[in-house]
Amino acid sequence: MIKIRNQKKSNKQEFDSQSQKKFTYLPLLFLLAIITGVFILYWQTLSFDFTNLDDNIFIKKGDNEILSFNEIINSFLKGCFAEKDAYYRPLLMIYFKTMNHYFTDNLLETYHFVNILIHCLNILLLFYFLKSINQNRTTNLILVALFALHPTFTMAVAWIPGINDLLLTTFALLFFISTNKFIYKFNLLHALIASLSFLFALFIKETGIFLPLICFILVTKNFDFKPFLKPKVIAFLSVILFEILLWYFLREGVLDKASKNVITQNWFTVLPHRLVSLFHYSSKALVPINLCVYPVFEVGRITTDIFITLTFIVLLFGLLFKMKSKEGMYFTFVGLIWFGILLTPILFMPAAAKPILFEHRLYLPFIGILICLLLPLNFLVDRLNSLTIGGFFLILIFYAFKVNAYVPYFSNSFEFCRNGAEFSPSSSRAQLNFGKALAEKNEMDSAIEYIKLSLKIDSKMHYSRYYLALYKYIPNQKYDSALFFLHQELNFTPEFPNNYLEISRCYLFKKDYPNSEHYLEKYRGLLPIDDRIATIMIQLYIQNNHFKKAKSYSDSMLKKSVVIDTTLIKLINQGLSKNHQ
Question: What is the pTM of this model?
């Protein structure tokens, strides 16, 4: 009898052991299935072309030479788009320059593949992060699946510059995981990973500055501050503070004047609109149905956005009160702070700018919503039934269909701009961009109509007048009308060199050589080295009998290896000799 009982006990232990192994492998299989789904949905991006929204700046104009040490250092001393700029992202610039050098063949394909790969890495890191704060693996897997297939993240994955938010999330999750481990286990390797991850997060995107605050709130559960008083932790926090100061002073040297004076009287007038924009983001995160590559603040959607957000909050707190869970309240508090604080940079954009509510910005903040759902989902998972499971898979199927339908809009600049114009009808810039895309296809009549619509929506829209002159009046030789719009454009974009070039061309066609020379000089002041204008510039100098200027300019161009027609050089020499006589 004893033997039989022991045999039964042994069999039961063996069965439990096998069940445990199966249960251990199930999350891995589920994660593998999710990652496979991600690759299937986004694989089509490998054949995509430029959208011409920043990607053409980072890639087409990328330096194919290998980065030297001096160039790496210089990347930390200038802005993202200009020497002085509001955007300070040196690691992003180093990433693009490195990729441009090492992957000249199939460059776009490689960029897109890296985006998919980093998204998949973030899926795994998110699961590990959720596991560190929540023991219910079923809940963690559900939340990871929602993150992996969420349609709002299509822009972050399918648009090449979305790597910015993908890498920010990678460094943020590594920072949270490693900091949590270090504070309670004092492993120096974890401290090194955490400090480096935070440093990389700062230099990949400015939003990284908020990570220590979020981490502090996560770690100090139940307001237990004792771990932070230990010498090793104090030393670690000193390193984090040093990194913040280093980033701050380097960034201060790069910021333009407008970025340093964000909070002005005008800023307070636009603040209510910016706050409402947070509702737009939250509703899109909760119900991803109004997806757009170029989303803007739509007055008609305010009520819907606020309703969706408040409904979610009421249902969430209603369930938490029913559960009587203090821990649930804590995680909800953390999640809401996570979501809100990582979106606050939109409040501090220059007051004159009309914010474009790009969806890639939601990638990291969305994890805050997932944290809010942790305890309520644990509660529901414990009461799982076929209806709940079916509802979850229906959501994932809906997400997959939405992503599959949305991804093609990132395939090229025309589709990208068409989506922006169609789904953001009140965006002046979206209409202008689509007008330019139509012009590239030689559909000039339609292009002109969209540019006119851009001006109708916003009479101060930058570049609209320039393109109206370029596409409508100059081709039809209506130079006076073209000059009228080009001179107006100077009031809005005085640093735009092409505008001066077109003004110069119009005066040249009108045979007003002094004015043509004057505006070409202004163009040359903004773009000193430009092969296209060297010949025109010299011809104008000769036409206006400015032979000394022609000689000086031609010599400077020859030193820069710009080819000058020998006939022009002869004319310059002849003119100089006549003047000398």
Answer: 0.84
